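For reproducibility, we list the full input for the NAI complex.
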Amino acid sequence: MFEELLRGWDGEFVATRFDAPTSTWMFAGLHSTVLGPGFGGTRMKVYAEPEDALRDVLRLSTAMTYKNAMADLPFGGGKSVLAVPFVPTGQARRELMLRYADLIASLGGSYVTACDMNTTSPDMDVVAERCTHVMGTTEEHGGSGTSAPDTAVGVFHGIRASLAHAFGSDDPSGRTIVVEGAGAVGGQLADLLAEAGAKLVVADIDADRADAVAERVGAVVVDPSDVFDTPCDVFSPCATGAVLNAETIPRMRCRIVAGAANNQLATPEDADRLAAAGILYAPDYVVNAGGVLHLAGYERLGWTPEQMAARLAAIGDTLRDVFEVADRDGVTPEVAAARIAEARIAARIV
Ligand code: NAI
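The corresponding predicted structure, in tokenized form, follows.
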């Protein structure tokens, strides 16, 4: 099964360790190092089978190649998965992270890690005890702090570029925008949109969060199960993945989808479903690049806040290019974004 998965993958290599003390499979996937070291987070998760974890690392490291290329970062795509039998805590967790750090160190800088699902900045501090190929440590250990505000700014620029393409004006003023998820990114995005004069609708499974954001920005609160049926100009998914699917798309009453959540499309066909419904889709990994820009920009590239602001604004320019290629080639924005990323990588292969 491992062989079948690897034969069907176009990446560079997967470093694999079985950690006997915790029965954890460690996979560090390097999809592409053409644009620079593979950069992507460490996911800790319980899987039914190690093959499921390997499948995830192949898929996720590939996605990071595209995300980092579209963010115009000098990084390729990588991702790690720690397939644990249960999520460890305390000393056992620390020891696991140290052994995992040894695996990353052995890759000699071809992979740079960070936090992902179930891993935190204190975990990255432990990794940093053994190697320097890590971002997203705590601020006491030189980390750059939460990336959510910069992610929100990037999404804001993405929404403006999408409005310009769909309506001929990038002005959010008077536009109705549904923000699904009033968390770290969704809350900050709501602030930016309210300041720009948008009419906001928010939803969160945590009603208190939705209420707090709504009160702050003067938004209407809807039940999370009603977000897809709410008429609006922009639907902004800032909660979880796979929200754009065969069940939700026919219900959607928006002109644009542009938000922070990762992996919004449940399947590749959902990009076609959106196009057929006349909905402009801003590819998630282009729009939510503020997260990787924040980490790489502040922790590796020495950017000033002014440089960061310029690079976040450039997310809007990239999206304009994506929509232009989509229109020119008669393909979905999802396909257009992949073509642009692949062209950027091909241009570096001699
Ligand atoms: P968060 O955990 O602070 O906020 C997520 C919010 O969504 C929570 O308030 C949660 O209660 C709510 N939620 C969960 N399921 C929901 C549902 N079905 N309907 C409505 N609300 C629901 O997370 P954060 O940092 O704001 O991230 C939001 C999304 O953006 C995530 O998918 C994340 O992977 C993605 N993202 C975040 C980045 C960052 O810099 N924080 C960078 C790139 C992507």
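The mean pLDDT is 97. Residues 2-141 form a domain with the Rossmann fold fold (CATH 3.40.50.10860). Both points were considered when choosing residues for closer inspection.
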